[in-house]
Amino acid sequence: MITDTFYKVRNYILPSSFGEGLGVRLLLAVMLFTACSELKDDDHYKNAESVISNAELKIVDMTSQQYIESRSDLSSMSQLFASQGIYDELQQKGQLSTLLVVTNDHYSAPAENTEFITRSHVSDISISPANLENGTRLMMWHGKYVNVSIDSLGLEGNIIGHVLFNNGAVQEVVKTTSGYIYVLAEMIQTPTSLKDYIDQLPDDYSIFRDMVQASGGKEFDRTNSKAVGINEQGNTVYDSVFIYTNTFFDSVGFDMNSESLTATMLLFSNDVINAALDDAHQRLEAWELERPDSIIKQWILKTAFFNKRYSAAEIQTTDVQDLKSIYSTQWRTNIQKVDAQNPIELSNGIVYNVTRLHIPTNVLIYRLKDYFYLYENCTDEQKAEYYKVTNMKFKSCDTKVSAWTPWAGVWPLHENRVLRFDKDPSDLQDSEGFQIDFTPIKRFDDGTIRAYLVPPGSYRLAMGSVQNAGLDVICTVFANGQEIAKSATITWGSSTAYHYDRGTTLPNRHPEGYNSSYVREMGGDSKADNYDTDGGLMIDEVTIPDIAGDGSAVRLTFRLDCYNWAGKTNVELHHWCLRPTENNY
Which of 16-20, 280-284, 372-376 is least confident? Predict the structure, then answer.
């Protein structure tokens, strides 16, 4: 009766058992004990003699235990296997295996965790050199994988010294009647798992360590905890078992404890994080903007983990390349700096130390959005400076839609208020149109008005007017007086795309953290999609140049030209919005 089978999937060597009660187990794949490419057709077992088919493979008519016991230079490993019951267990299982051993001169007796270390040298898989590939992961008896790495000469068929199991280079390969023996230059060192590695980080990494640990929790597992008595209060006392849950990682299927994980982690020291925060604070101050450290740190946490193992050449590049984390956050490998030459190998991943961290502009700025009606808060001098108009005169600032919220008590009230201009003069021909040069301004808490200073980089520009305006407009963007972008002719007509800031045509259009579907599920307004959006698209990408050459922010002007009043006597302007693109890094 077949008691267990094995199969190989994408370089993972994994056990497979099938359902109890089937009577027999189904054979899903061929056994890995197959003739390897190093063997000739006439290779065969000899009586206790080694037949060498080539300089790198020995074939013996002995079990693996018998062969190891026959060599005096393997006596230390043999004694270790015997003392830990490895030989007995192999005989009981009666199946093929792979044993990793070292000669006595390379043997180091375990000072602790003897069982764990011993079982890291035994696998239920009998794997030949021909079945080894660079990146193969072999499950060992200690429940963790050993990683196989092969250099360029090894890939050409040279085994000795060119194939490694974790840290140990292969010195000999022996095929026995019960599997394979690989004699290594070093005993197997099993790296710790990602979760254990993070938990053991020293205080120099406490900011990052604590962020990861704080994202999960520990729960009492009553089902698997053994009752050991009753206390004085009559409560059951358990030999407690705890399970660790982490919705932050679980929600994206990333289990740091799982040995089947093949991950990359970016490691941030306190010095690196603090330097990045200091730089971010300086940039924000220069832009007269604010961003909570909690959001920046959340971005660091979301960006630190990848569900793929990246090589040194992939993690640090000179060309523009973006890697996407488990949360799909953006890591640009030619901007960020990591120690790619000294990776830290773990049992289920690889770690790279970040040496310099740049907080992207599109993290520091979620969006810049403000309103034309700030005209009413300007002095006469500011109105003349920030609102330069042709064939128009100010009429009023009016609230069109009273302040509302799709979810009372959760999201703030939001009103739709517009700035209105009339034709000037009133008998102006429709075909003469109008022009407004508007400098985006913001109102500070003390009531003062100043122009926005917008950092260099790439942005999406959207605006809102009022539905059925019937105006054909062209938007031109200037940076410090220099034209940098111009739209095609856009009709502010019956489409709701440009109706105040209720447009539903753009992706990523809502305030940070807002999810309209969730709002509706929680009993919010049926028009939740219309809440405080970016508006309608004016220009896909506006690239603001680094005019001063030092990354400093610049002052913008939006010019709106309309060559057809379309029978209208006034124009109503609602808002503008700049949202950084992925290229604004």
Answer: 16-20
